[in-house]
Amino acid sequence: MNTLLQRAKEQEKTFIEYRRQFHRHPEPGWEEFETSATVMRHLDSLGIPYTRIGTTAVVGLIEGGKPGDRCIGIRADMDCLPIMEQTGVEYQSQIPNRMHACGHDGHTAILMGVATLLSEIKDQIPGKVKLFFQPAEEGPGGAKIMIEQGAMENPKVDAVIALHIGTVDLPIGKIAMMPGPSSGGTQGLKIVINGRGGHGAHPHKSVDAIMAAAHVVTALQSIASREVDPLDSIVITIGTIQGGYRGNVIADRVEMTGTIRTLEPNVRNAVPGQIERIVAGVCEAMRCTYEIEIPEGIPSVVNDPAMVALAFDSCVNVLGKENVFIKKRPSMGGEDFCYFASAAPGVMLALGAENAAKNCNVPGHHPNITLTKMPLPLVWLP
Fold first, then answer.
1. Residue 373 pLDDT > 70, yes or no?
2. For the residues 328-344, what does the mean pLDDT come to?
3. Active site residue 252
4. Strands, DSSP E only, in 118-158?
5. Nearest 5°: CA angle at 160, between 169 and 128?
6. Which of 137, 252, 304, 335 is labelled catalytic?
7. 44 given a catalytic annotation
8. How many helices (H) and strands (E) would you count in the chain?
């Protein structure tokens, strides 16, 4: 393993530059054309065969030189977010309203580095390794589509692993993981409330959709406080409200969108009915009608306990016990690695990147998020 660490250190500058290249040219889900082309050129240079799925997914295959019929998959996501970057770093996004604000540029560069290291020792590997370069983690449905189109077959994948960079709550250079649910299941939410418009000076002649919407936003929070076990987790956030024309006009329509986050299947399954009951009740009381859409969304990532134990011991062997932790709490952030971890025993690791001294301590999906060089020779994150 020390040889691997030394080789990683020797390759550091190469993969820092790859990460910066991806950061300069962020691409959204299923449009990661330049990113996937760079990945394929890298795999070609290593002699690693690969297949393509859809427009941009890439699946590499390393065949070990020792006897063994088991296969492990390693996944990295490649897509960006529709955010205008404000970091001011020299390798800042060159494309307006696109930014790698969730670490996917780092994930991709790391897996390219892993491909390099594993290709150099493939004669020592008993079995096979699949490299999943995944599009559209932020949506729409990159992992699920890859699996539906055979990414976990030929050869069949027996276990999967992934990591996610975090700049909050986990100091730089630390690794954390936990068995069981480790991320929130996510569902979208759209509510339309229809009233009857009119003059702001004559509200009694109208049906105010904005007032009804305000009551709905407040009432929805009673699901978490009064309908769900306090020891379970749920978040219902209304993120946008659109309605009205001007200050002296009573709105005839309001559209709200939001997100639902849960951990337990029973809580997730109950939420749509709870939301509709509350919206229906408020709208009846306020003389409005309503429409609700709650897409299926994605479930929680559920880490396999045996895979967590294996990953924990492996990380301790490489990084030392002082740098590896078992998390006590899951994150309510969504992650479509859940589909890989449902198809085979899996584990998602959290890679700490919090570094307040370098202003690397804002949360993901923030226009000022940035990364600093990691003190781990196994990864390259400038």
1. no
2. 95
3. no
4. 126-134
5. 135
6. 137
7. no
8. 10, 16
Residue-number span of the structural domain to which 66 is assigned: 2-183+300-358
Widest CA span in the chain: 82
If you average pLDDT over every residue of the chain, what do you get? Answer: 94
Q: Over the stretch 61-73, which tens digit does the pLDDT of each residue have? A: 999 999 999 999 9
**What is the distance between the alpha carbons of residues 66 and 121, in angstroms, rounded to a whole number?**
11
DSSP class of 331: -
Cα angle 366-369-370, degrees, rounded to a multiple of 5: 165
User: Which is catalytic among the residues 79, 105, 138, 336?
Assistant: 79
Which distant-in-sequence residues (6+ apart) come within 8 Å of 5 by Cβ?
318, 377, 378
pLDDT tens, 195-206?
A: 999 999 999 999
- The pLDDT value given to residue 140: 77
354 in the same domain as 311: yes
Q: Mark whether 278 and 163 lie in a shared domain.
A: no
CATH number at residue 223: 3.30.70.360
249-250 and 198-199 as β-strands: parallel, antiparallel, unpaired? Answer: antiparallel
Q: Nearest 10 degrees: CA dihedral of 118, 120, 126, 129?
A: 30
What's the pLDDT tens digit per position in 340-349? 999 999 999 9
